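Q: I'm writing up a methods section and want to include an example of the input and output format. Could you take the sequence below and give the corresponding predicted structure tokens, formatted cleanly so I can copy it straight into the document?
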Amino acid sequence: MSKISIGLRGWRFDESTVFTDTGEFRPLESMPDDDRERLLRLNVLIDEPCDVCQLTIGAEDIGRCRPAAIVYGEPGAEVLVCDPHEPTFIHWYREAGGADLAGTAAFQASFHRWVAAGNRAPAEYRGLEYVEEDPAAVPMPKSIAELTDELNTRFAHERRRIDLRTGEVGTVADRQDADG
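A: Here is the clean output for your methods example:
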């Protein structure tokens, strides 16, 4: 199977670890931890604006920002860019020290500081070329509600709850069993 992007370009997944043979998403618990973490994070990022637009325009006028099309970095320290601002990210990554921060928590903050200081790619700098055979055929990640239900079911036996009336500590699964 091949490597694919889901929702946003950038993060790549082995198709066989994310989808069943029939093209449906595999259950989260059957996915490698890294893939599961990225898919969960994509649900948060999918409707976010481009970081460069947001830093340039400002949060008070976020409606003017373009939506992110590409994600770079690791979950929690990712950079989101739209197509027109991808060259700015690529320039920072290749020419301004971004590659040295790959995989670190400082990745996102460093890029944001660089952009906020007024830095941009030269006009002739280009982004990456992508091969999109059939982007409409790739399903979007599961909805937040579907993921929440799946995670709640999967981890109910591990999630702790405290009964504030008695101080008793148990699991969510214990409470569900008691409620019958």
